[in-house]
Design brief:
Layout (H helix, E strand, L loop, with lengths): L1 H38 L12 H32 L3 H17 L4 E11 L3 H9 L14 H13 L4 E4 L2 E2 L6 E4 L2 E4 L2 E3 L3 E6 L2 H9 L2 H13 L2 E12 L23
Antiparallel strand pairs: 1-7, 1-8, 2-3, 2-7, 4-5, 5-6
Helix pairs in contact: 5-6
Length: 262
Amino acid sequence: MGGSWRELLRFRVRGRWRPVAVSMFVVAGLLFVTTSINSKGLDLRAASVTDLDHVVRAEREHVNDLQSQVSGLNTQISGLSHQVNDSQVTELQHQVDLLRGPSGFSPVTGPGLTVVLDDAPKSELDEARNNPDSGVTQDELVVHQQDIQAVVNALWSGGAEAMTIQGQRVISTTGIKCVGNTVILHGVPYSPPYRISAIGDASDLQASLDNSDYVNAYLTFVDAYQLGYKVTESSSLDMPGYTGAATLKYARPGPEPTDAPR
């Protein structure tokens, strides 16, 4: 009788744990599925986000996809605008078409040159990091936005008719922003080397680079610490038209507070 009682107790305990075990397996399965959906197939481990180059490439590809969508929509809008049978709209569209080239929205081909800027070699960067008395910091051995802007300004001064940075067309609203060791251009992050191409008379463009105080200041670090600087002349450069947003953004003064001191 005692043995039967113990066997009955074990049977009841096992019977109670079975639905609990099944529930635990179901919950675990749901967690795995939820994690897979939220990660969208990406590795959720911390190591996956420490690869800066991978992050930059992924973000650049994402922005490029969005810009392609914007370009397609702008093409549709332009096509629909040209189909409107209205004399005033037709005249305005004609004015827009005349301004597309000078403003950088049309592709262009012509002779010119390309300037490539790059960070110093790893050996120089390691020396600056490990030897504080070297007289130079790591920050001084990488390309910054002011270095890119110095080249861009010199090329405009040399009579550049059109320009691209990393293959993106430069227009009047183009801004260059340095974030860490990457440069943001039209919302897209880029890592070095940086390619700046300009269409125009190559000799005039080169002379303007040679006469720029800012470019010459950069060249002192090129000579001393091997930062990258290379100029290549081309008989024909193909540049795309700008396809991004063209809305101007600017600050506006706010209303004066009513309780402001007088």
